[in-house]
Each structure stands twice: as structure tokens, then as C-alpha cells.
Amino acid sequence: MTDNGAEEGKVAPAEPTVRLVDKLQEQWRKTKEHAETYPYVWGSYILVYSGLAAYLTWRWRKLRHTEDRVRALQERLKKLVEADEAKKPPSGP
């Protein structure tokens, strides 16, 4: 007797992969047809999302620049406090 369960186990993992690839290819084909049919819609998508990406990039860079300035000021303040503490005479009883 042959074990049909073992044979099915060998075939089963390959099927979902094939289905996934077919599904992705079909979705790509539909998207391509839609883009060819409605180019202005896709152009507006590109314009809006690239503008959003540019704005977010600008804000991120501005935030990073502000953080760098704050770190530099904190370091400068730390050095001033250390220098001030070094100038004070030790207090004793």
C-alpha cells in the first residue's frame, strides 16, 4: 500500500505558490490596463503622493536639524555648569 498522505504533502506546498504568482500576475495586468485607460488618474496619484513624500522628507530633515541644535546647546550648557562648579570653592564646616 502506498501512503497517499505523504504524496499529497509533497504536492500541496507548491500549489499555493503557483496560485499566488498567478494572482499577482493577474493583479499586475489589471493595474496596467487601468493605468493605460486612465492616465490622468495615475498622474494625479503620482503628483499627490510625491508631493506628500517631499513634504514629509522636508519636515523630517527640519526635525533632525532642530534635534542636532538642541544636542549642541545641551552639551554647551553641560560644559558651562561643569566650569561653574569647578570655580566654586569647596564648602566646608
Automatic annotation (TrEMBL):
Keywords: Membrane, Transmembrane, Transmembrane helix. The chain crosses the membrane at residues 40-58. This is Uncharacterized protein. The lineage of its organism: Eukaryota, Viridiplantae, Streptophyta, Embryophyta, Tracheophyta.
